[in-house]
């Protein structure tokens, strides 16, 4: 059956869904509307892991090969704490420029026959479409128009952050923690091309105001941050984006993901804290899940309900990990005085629902022991998800 699909938002989620639906049925009439001009995108580089790449190859080998060829790789994590450095080998990670990723997906979509309409803003669902996909981001106009049906809820994090670029090309996923007289400030850095890296800087509200970042203009801000992170940047500059200043991360959830023939996708449906590096991955996985549901179910309402059930269930553990990761950074003084290798080990455990309730030194010792003893590993695997569900239920009850 040929259907008319209107996708609002030309980010990774919307473009990839269009690709998958065209592959399923080339006769589908699919248009992607993007309010911004072609080639203008926010952000620097995005990061993803091998698991996503494997799934991309399963769903559309052509775009997967193009994305893999355009990505840079790393396998180490490095933490700089004051003048001390520790390096650990981990899973292989990938970085790609957001602009490059969107270009590749747009080219693939066009090749398959998808219409791309740039500088085309859609704020109301077209009446002649069989399916309307709201992939227009955390500030989704379509979701806002039907807020009573979707039930969005937004909570703001405590810390301030800013998304920057740099010409310093990091050879590992890099964490840098700098102590100032007003508290700690830290950066996450990873390469996404042979010329540039992403550099996200974060700090507490007290450090933010103490350093005067709340009053500094863009040039003053970049100069101060370059000075604070001069060692890790090796003299390279930080690069801002006009109009992109400091933010507090906004975590979005929705009570429902579909309403009639309108369905939410990507950041319009959910956001997860940037410190777990999963935003683009989750958006692409949304597209895979929705395409699968539309393929498996003849009725639209059944397909959208199946998509919502699957994705909300799959996201529970990721959303829990993101909440605890954000909390770890909001409580950095609890961990930063540990020896760097121990602090870095607990940085890797920041998704754990148990860590906030166990003294850090004790948790480190137990985790080391669990790594050596199979019975403790099994107990940790058994207890962690149960604790996460119990704490999530308690948190949800407080907000009802």
Q: Care to describe what's here?
A:
The radius of gyration is 22 Å and the shape is globular. Strand 4 and strand 5 form a beta hairpin. The chain is built from 14 helices and 15 strands. Strands 3, 4, 5, 8, 9, 10, 11, 12 and 13 form a nine-stranded mixed β-sheet that branches. The protein has a six-stranded mixed β-sheet with strand order 6-2-1-7-15-14. Helix 1 runs parallel beside helix 4, helix 2 packs antiparallel against helix 3 and helix 10 packs antiparallel against helix 11. The chain is 44% helix and 26% strand.
Tags for this entry?
400 residues; alpha/beta; nine-stranded mixed beta sheet; six-stranded mixed beta sheet; 14 helices; 15 strands; 44% helix; globular
